Amino acid sequence: MRELKRTYTRSARLMAAALLIVLIVATFTDLPVSKLLYPGHETSFGQFFAAFGELPAFLCLTSAGVLLIWNRRRLPGGRMLLWAAAGAVLVLLGLVLAVHEATDNVPALPTWVAVLVAVFTAAVAGFALILLTADCPVRTVLRFVLTLVFVSIGTMALVNIIKIPWGRARMRFITETGNETYFTPWWKAGSALKNKLVTDGVSSDEFRSFPSGHTACAACSMLVILLPTLNKRLRGKERLCLLIAVGFTLLVAVTRICMGAHFLSDVTFSWLLTLGVSVLGIWLFYFNQKVFNKIWGLFAPQTAPQTEN
Questions:
Q1: What pLDDT band is residue 1 in, cutting at 50, 70 and 90?
Q2: Nearest to 225 by CA among 153, 126, 151
């Protein structure tokens, strides 16, 4: 566990340092970068990630639900119905969010396609985790489930708490109007401008640039770094898992800029936000024994702490 903690700590510090550097650069180059990358219209490639780029956050919920249902007999307290019900709620919530966000971001997308993609990816992810956790201690499974739920819900909540009142105009709106005075730096709320233009009939969605919900949700894929804790065969492959997640998140982030939906600072800040929530979640449920033992004790107060592999 100590070696694992060192690996996670080093990875988090390096990623945070890199993202902070990019955020500093973006503070001075937001508009030029968007002018360079945004062609002034949407692309099919960008629309694909607009529809499905947020899936990692929703798959965290469906995967957590599948694990609760599958391990309901092993989880503490003998509350099989409670664990199964909680799992079903998480699966349903993840699927509903996946379908809603896909069709909301790309209205031309048929609902049946969104449903098919959501169900298929959730099934594949759930089945893979069932196989990976076949010989995994139940306490480790619960740690993983708690982290998935905490990070995905926490990230989505924080993004919307910031996004709605912040009111930063999107690049596509600035381009369409040809008025660069609508541009505001990421650290300055644009709520006054938003309130004025929305009153004049402009859609409020054009003022939801900061931070990027897609990038934040895509960055939830970083939790694949926890997969080696579920299966010994994956031990030592933490960095590889993280590299795959970084590649996917970077792809989503770039497409959001290319679609004129976000600036470089928007996607960078969102990534940092998810990283911070992930670090907190992993610390709470993996490395803070007091917190996890209290949670475990709520369901199995008579069960002594077990030794995990």
A1: low
A2: 151
